Amino acid sequence: MNPAQDFAIKIIGERINPGFKSTRALFDNQDLAGIQALAIKQAEAGARYQNVNIGAQALTDPQWMARVIEAIQEVVTTPLSFDFPSKAVQEICLSCYDPAKANGELPIVNSITEHRWDLMELYGRFKFKVIMMASERVENGKALGNKTAEQIYSTARRAALRLKNDYGMPLDDIFIDMSVSAIIADTEGLNRSTVEAIQAIGADPELKGVHMMGGLSNIGQQLPPKAADGSDLKHCLENAFLTLTVPHGFDYVLGTPWRGYAPLPEDHHVLKTYRNFLEQSGSNALRAVRKFYKA
Asked: At residue 48, does pLDDT exceed 90?
C-alpha cells in the first residue's frame, strides 16, 4: 500500500530532470529506453503526473524534448507536466502531447508567475492545467519576492481568480506552488508564512477546488542526515510540514514517488521541534533549529 495515497497526497514525479545525475546521463546519451524505464518506474510507484524537464537543452534542441515526451507517452498513461519557462518550448511540448495516450487528461504547464504570464497566451489554442508560483508578485511594475503570509495568499488568490475569470480555467486545473524554504537560515519566518498562507487559501470559499503543492526537498538542507531517534531527518521534516498543511488542502508534492509520505504523531520529536521552530523568529529560530541536532 502506498503511504502517500493513505495521506491524501498525490505525487508529481520529479525524476525526469537532469538535476539527478543518473537522469542527466540518460539525457547526455540520448537513452530513450532508459528514460522510458524511469517513467514506468515512477508510474508504478503511483505518480499522478510526471514532470518533464530536460534543462537548457530544451532551448538548444527543443525537438529532443519532443522526442522525450513522445517516448514517455509510448509506455505510460500518466499525464505530463512540462517544466520550462519558455513559451516557445512549452508550445512544442503542448503540440506533441497526446491527451488520448493519457486517458484524455490535460498536461500541466510548469509554471507561470504574475510577471511571467506570457505562457497563458497559449491557452485557447491548447488546453492545459497550470502551476502558478505564489512566491512572487508584481508591484508597481516590478517583480518582488513574497515573504509574508498575506503577500503569498493575496498573490495566489489574485492569480487563481484571474485564471478562472479571464480564461475560464476551472479551479481544479490550477496548482498553486507554495515555496518551502530551508529552515537552516530561516530567520524571517518564511516557513511560518507558507504554512499560514496555506491555511488562508484552504479557508477561502472562492478558492475551493484549487490545488496546493510544492517541492519539499529544500526544507532540510544542510541539516544532519539523522534525527535524534535515528530516523531520516529530512524526510521527517517533510512529513512534519505535511502533517500541518495537508488538512488545509496542500495535496500535491513534486517529489520522488517511491519516497512515501505519512503524518507524524503529535508526540514525534521532529514534529514538536518543527512546531516550536515555526513560533520563533530571528536568532531564536536558529536556536530552535539546533534542537534537531540534539540526541
From this structure: yes
If 0-12 CB within 10 Å is exposed, 13-18 middle and 19+ buried, where does residue 286 land?
middle
Distance of CA 85 to the CA centre of its chain: 15
As to burial, measured by CB atoms within 10 angstroms (0-12 exposed, 13-18 middle, 19+ buried), residue 241 is buried
Length of the chain equals 295
Q: Look up the pTM and report it.
A: 0.95
pLDDT in tens, 245-283: 999 999 999 999 999 899 999 999 999 999 999 999 899
209 Cβ contact list (under 8 Å, min separation 6): 170, 171, 172
Q: Containing H/E element for 26?
A: helix 21-28
pLDDT value of residue 173: 98
| Residue linked to cell 498553486 | 176
Matching CATH number, 3-293, of 3.30.70.240, 3.30.460.10, 3.20.20.20, 3.20.20.70: 3.20.20.20
Boundaries of every domain in the chain: 3-293
